[in-house]
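May I ask for an example protein's residues together with how it folds?

___
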Amino acid sequence: MLERGRDYAHFRLVIIEGKVYIEKYKRPYQTRDLFTVWGILQLLRLYPGKVSDLELMFWCDDRPVIMKSDYEEQNSTLPLPPPPVFHYCGHQEAFDIVFPDWTFWGWAETNIKPWTSTLEDIRKGNKRTIWEERIPYAYWKGNPNVSLTRKDLMKCNSTRDKYDWNSRLYTQDWDKEIEKGYKNSKLEDQCTHRYKIYVEGRSWSVSDKYILACDSMTLMIEPEYYDFYLRSLVPLQHYWPIRTTRKCRDIKFAVEWGNRHSRQARAIGRAGSKYVEEQLKMKYVYDYMFHLLNEYAKLLNFKPRVPKRARKMCSQKLLCLQSQHGLWKKFMVESMVNSSSETLACNMPPPFEPLALEAFFESKEIIKKQVEMWETEFWENLNQDH
């Protein structure tokens, strides 16, 4: 079964007796594979000898690749089971196994530091402007050309000649930004508005954690994809829901509501920040990785082996290979685990019972419906006033 995942993988990772071996198949975008492997090496340094022997396939592109529709029963003939493939995000129609993305250890190509440092920088940035003094509009900055959803969002931009949707949207030109030394793309400088918009790119976006960390109320355009923690967020507790089909109207209402209910809006923004500060600590990211890999290893019905073309990897070797890439090496040094953990990984909570999980998702839908009712009343009253 594992071998059938080879066509969908950028690399194979093997762990045997705490040693890591990598067999590469394809070159992914930028350095995603490099920093993903680096993160796994740091996990083994944090919990030496605690990660079981295993063998897995990893896919580094944006969208999930093992789709359920390809493995459904057809013509009463049961097809082969889907191969296990690890990936950065999931989808309700996909079987990909969700793993933390590479940016937790740094995204060198955009000058985004490892998560611990970035989070601390954003905390400091939050203190520069208290919520009441922030610009009372919704803010987003990014590349709109990677998806139709983002292009559609740009229609909500407010200009002198158009209706004011209470949003301020900006295009990020990464080529120009690189030339300028990343002066206008520092995440800690983007916490100046009361509201920040999260919108997916080609699939989920790594920006979700940076946006939530800003203390601004996150306006989350209904995501289709999810990373390993996104589905645990609750509307009106951690974020404000925005429908994909009614972006402009929903954004305008969210801002109007927030400015009229500043205490509640500020509380939602703070709860989102508190979530990533407390629940998304690197220790917990590693613990998720630890439990995921060990539970996966229990399911293997074969003894992992080292492929002939695989290369042995360790932290020191990977650092040496980056001697010509200053920023890459800098981020690796910064995110290196220098000592093993004095405590065990946190205990895994028991899995949701099917009915409990269904009730959790239903409760979120009920909250979204309540927001829609508020908005309907808002627009009806606005039309009556005109």
